[in-house]
Amino acid sequence: MKIPPAVSDATANGSRAGSEPIRRSVDGLEPADLANPPVIERPITYSTSSKWIVVPRPRPRAVARLFCFPYAGVGSSAYRGWGDASPEGLEVCLLQPPGRENRLREAALTSIGEIVDSLVSDLLSRSDLPFAFFGQSLGAVVAFETTRRLRRMGGRLPDALFVAASRAPQLPWPHPHVRHLDDVALLNVLNQRYDSVPRVVIDDPELRALLTPAVRADMAAVETYAYEVEEPFDLPLYAFGGDEDRMVGQHELQHWSAQTTGPFRLRMMSGAHLFAHDSRDALIAEVAAALSIANDRLPAPLGK
Question: 52: which of 132, 150, 214, 236 is 20 to 30 A away, CA to CA?
Answer without folding.
Answer: 236
